[in-house]
Amino acid sequence: MRIAVVGATGMVGRVMLQVLEERNFPVTEIIPVASERSVGKTIDYKGKQYTIVSMQDAVEMRPDIAIFSAGGETSKQWAPKFAEVGTTVVDNSSAWRMDPACPLVVPEINADILTKEDKIIANPNCSTIQLVMVLNPLHKKYGIKRVVVSTYQSVTGTGKDAVEQLNGEIEGRDVAKVYPYQIFKNALPHCDVFDEETGYTKEELKLTREPRKIMRVDEMNITATAVRVPVQGGHSESVNIEFENDFDLAEVRKLLSEQDGVTLQDNPDTNTYPMAFYSEGKDDVFVGRIRRDLSQPNTLNCWIVADNLRKGAATNAVQIAEYLVKENLVG
Known about the structure:
This protein is α/β, with parallel strands linked by helices.
């Protein structure tokens, strides 16, 4: 199994290589791909050095799977070229997510839609993935009418330069600003760019649109506010869910504890609840602070946390690749 990692030197790309190694993915050859300035350098994978190649060279090498984390414009240009030579692309950008011809996949929820004909598969937005991991089992049981989500998103969601800005501000160094304001000791209600028509940011619109496609629910109402906070690893979400039917809190906890990839952390007596600090480096989605909304019937509040570089990006992409191999959908 020859695997290309496109964007191998970036923050998510490095985690993809780490996750492939940790999960002992059946790799016969890693093909690291990066920008022209990195071509010719080497990366280490399982103690062996691999030379970084250009995009065109990688296409000509015809890998079985190419896992992309190189930005939307790069993906729009190059994913079809890989697909044309028979490579199955798993893309981590927003380029293909809402394309009707491309599956948008969280393996625990909808991997069953994948076929051998799917040559470009979209990895959802990081905040979307952790949200649907909790929403899906609850929707199946109670039917969701409306979701209100507010996010508290790590600077790692923006990239290496954002981490450098935060650390530089903490240390009092003069650093280039990725954000329009300082992020240290601050919270910016501004993730991604603003959409002129709606006034929402693109991140917020992703959160309203992507869950419906993944969960195969056209009518579910979702509204979102996305906030960047001075945290270096892990996204957190405050989520309010209105159901069609009433629920039992004990049953809600049981459903979530039985969901693959979800860990329940919900005991106020011992101050047990999900935190970004403890999610960092882990693959599960953590959920807690589960309680009724006392202001209206059939409504639940909860708090969801996950490492945005792992389940929110790299791990989910690798899990898609694992499913493709297991079901003989590549090659």
